[in-house]
Specification:
With 329 residues, the protein is of the alpha+beta class. The protein has two domains: 200 residues, Exo-inulinase, domain 1 (Jelly Rolls); 76 residues. 17% of the residues lie in helices and 33% in strands. The protein has four helices and 19 strands. Strand 18 and strand 19 form a beta hairpin. 33% of the residues are buried.
Length: 329
């Protein structure tokens, strides 16, 4: 009997851990997480302009139809959040575009004018006269990411952390954006008032061709204590403002030629990428005398970058036939 109880106890622990790993019940691990969507209906949520764009199916919120935004208007924190963590599991259909807004406020029509948007877009390319390059995890027009770290038809977790003047966005636990808002941020003239303040959340239904699923939506309110003053030098702040101005103008900022050499690790390169706001292409040297000399080595390198917010690249190094001088291609 004792062995049976031991087996049952281990089975219970295993099932609980499995449920947590799938994001099914964060409250079981941390009581500070609060569920915003009960999986049954849209109580506590209010849709704008085209209400039928949002529905509930099998415990999921489905966004499918003309432009509309689903705002949280429920009782948690009186739907007014300043510092918080938000988590939501998301699945996109091919060519879907969507987003999650925070520090926003309900409005009946149009794109939300208040707050930040975290982009959800793995394969959407835009419409007539406009090409959309900003991928999942981007802090829209503030810190754009141009390499998708998630896939259509698969669940991924969007995690948004706001504390003081700092905004962090991990996707599936991998950091994508790490942004510190300056005192007078640069913003696009025709965009939302993307500035840290307080407000609610909203899920985006972008257009009739964008079908997106949301589930396991949780929030963890954080202390209102602000972080220390901006730790960067005035020169660093001005450089970041200049970079943000390019993002606001929809100008892609990409460095395709970043090598992991001289002691530089992949994690250090990705950290630099998200801090400065430039998407990197991580390149590996391939050829005689280098780590990658065959297909298996190349596959290991590409697998290491799988799911990372970076482009995959390789540089072939060989010997010229006559002069024996190295060349690059």
């Amino acid at each position: 009997m004792r062995n049976l109880w031991l087996k049952l106890s281990l089975l219970y622990v295993f099932c609980a851990l499995a449920a947590l790993s799938l994001g099914q019940d964060l409250t079981a691990a941390d009581k500070q997480w609060i569920r915003l969507f009960d999986g049954k209906g849209l109580t506590g949520w209010k849709a704008s302009e085209n209400e039928k764009t949002f529905s509930v199916e099998d415990g999921m919120i489905v966004a499918d139809g003309p432009r509309s935004h689903l705002f949280y208007v429920g009782p948690v924190e009186d739907h007014d959040f300043a510092n918080f963590e938000l988590r939501a599991d998301v699945m996109t259909m091919p060519r879907a575009n969507s987003g999650i807004y925070f520090h926003t406020a309900y409005q009946q029509r149009g794109w939300p004018r208040k707050g930040y948007e975290v982009q959800i877009n793995n394969t959407y390319r835009g419409g007539p006269g406009y090409r959309e390059l900003k991928k999942t995890g981007s802090l829209y027009s503030v810190r754009n990411v141009f390499a998708s770290c998630a896939k259509d038809n698969e669940w991924f977790t969007v995690h948004i952390i706001v504390q003081g003047r700092r905004i962090q966005v991990p996707i599936d636990g991998k950091p994508v954006v790490d942004y510190i808002e300056p005192d007078d941020p640069v913003r696009r003239r025709d965009g939302a008032a993307a500035k840290l303040s307080h407000g609610t959340f909203a899920l985006q239904g972008h257009d009739p061709g964008s079908k997106v699923y949301f589930k396991n939506i949780y929030v963890k309110p954080l202390s209102d204590a602000r972080l220390p003053e901006d730790p960067r030098t005035p020169e660093q702040i001005e450089l970041q403002k200049r970079i943000t101005s390019y993002h606001a103008a929809d100008m892609p900022l990409i460095d395709y030629h970043v090598h992991l050499k001289g002691g530089l690790t992949l994690q250090e390169a990705l950290q630099k990428s998200r801090q400065v706001g430039i998407t990197y292409g991580i390149a590996e040297n391939c050829g005689l005398g280098f780590k990658v000399v065959d297909d298996e080595g190349l596959k290991r390198f590409l697998d290491k970058l799988e799911g990372m917010p970076a482009f995959k690249a390789m540089q072939v190094v060989a010997k010229m036939a006559r002069k024996g001088k190295p060349w690059h291609s």
